Amino acid sequence: MEKQVKVGVGIFVFKDGKFLLLKRKGSHGGDTWSLPGGHLEFGESFAEVGARELLEETGLVAGNIQFGAVLNNHFIDVDKHYVSVWLTSDWMEGEEHITEPDKCHAVGWFDFESLPEPLFLPWQQFLDSDFLEAVEGRLRQTAV
Ligand code: 8DG
Ligand code: MG
């Protein structure tokens, strides 16, 4: 079968100067910390995927969803290739919990000075990208 590039969506949810990361389990990038997120399904908007995955994976509801970054990620070891679209959003309601224990070991709130390790592969590109500054700026606006 022909190899295909897929689209993954990750979403920052900002609350009091921090954002939520999940420790992945099962699929590739297992045991790394990543944004909540998932696959773009046929016909969906980026914001729909972001809001849906955030709710499914953490129980949180977000608003003010905006574009954050686009990253081109070839996961060579597992022979997968994703274009990752990252979004930013503001926490609106809900308390975070692990809703899918088969996919996630842990959740936590972090900022750019306290990033956990190891991070999911797209993070390496993001931290070296021009998108970081704008995302950091938006996060600072939510700090108390
Ligand atoms: P789904 O199949 O139910 O839509 O999603 P999932 O079960 O939550 O899968 P996932 O592994 O969390 O996400 C799907 C793919 O999206 C993942 O294999 C790689 C890609 N992806 C990126 N960037 C990001 C990201 O920042 N966070 C998440 N969770 N996935 C991402 O390319
Ligand atoms: Mg996911």
Q: How would you describe this structure in keywords?
A:
144 residues; alpha+beta; Nucleoside Triphosphate Pyrophosphohydrolase; 7-stranded mixed beta sheet; 3 helices; binds 8-OXO-2'-deoxyguanosine-5'-triphosphate; binds magnesium ion
Q: Could you write a compact summary of the structure shown?
A:
The protein contains three helices and seven strands; from the N terminus they run ββββαβββαα. The chain is α+β, with helices and mostly antiparallel strands. The longest helix is centred in the middle third of the chain and has 13 residues.
Characterization of the model:
With 144 residues, this protein is an alpha+beta fold. It has a single domain, classed as Nucleoside Triphosphate Pyrophosphohydrolase (Alpha-Beta Complex). Helix content is 21%, strand content 41%. Strands 1, 2, 3, 4, 5, 6 and 7 form a 7-stranded mixed sheet that branches. Strand 5 (61-75) and strand 6 (80-93) form a beta hairpin. The chain is globular and about 50 Å long. The chain starts with a strand and ends with a helix. The model has no long low-confidence stretch (mean pLDDT 95). It binds 8-OXO-2'-deoxyguanosine-5'-triphosphate and magnesium ion. 8-OXO-2'-deoxyguanosine-5'-triphosphate is lined by residues 8, 10, 27-28, 34-35, 37-39, 53, 73, 82, 84, 122.
